[in-house]
Amino acid sequence: MERETVTFYELLGGTSGIRRIVEAFYPKVLQEPLLAPLFPKDITPVMEKQTEFLTQFFGGPPLFSEKYGHPMMRARHMRFPVTRERADAWLGCMRRALDEVGVEPALRDAVMERLQGPAYHFVNS
């Protein structure tokens, strides 16, 4: 009998679980001096896009692509000065958000490893 692969999307609780992570994440981003200046005052649309992107990125339904087309995330971030320090700060905020919502350490570490590649790929400054 073949076992089905379980996705990060499922392990994180589906779209509602990812939304909880995003809701824990963005207050941290807005308090981070390296990141806050890059974000608009009304963070709500950014949070919605991030929920849709992470849902898709972690193996759930392609919500982001259905609304906005191919993610092309590096191109979408080119207008922002993304430094290695900012990527580190972003990852730090995400790690704290995962801890805050109670993602167990082994899953948290696997999620963080999955996010490191894209985070550092966006570095352009």
TrEMBL record:
Keywords: Heme, Iron, Metal-binding, Transport. The keyword Iron-sulfur does not apply. Gene3D superfamilies: Globins. Signal peptide: none annotated. PANTHER family: TWO-ON-TWO HEMOGLOBIN-3 (PTHR47366). It holds the Pfam family Bac_globin. This is Globin. The lineage of its organism: Bacteria, Bacillati, Bacillota, Bacilli, Bacillales. Belongs to the truncated hemoglobin family. Group II subfamily. It comes from the Bacteria.
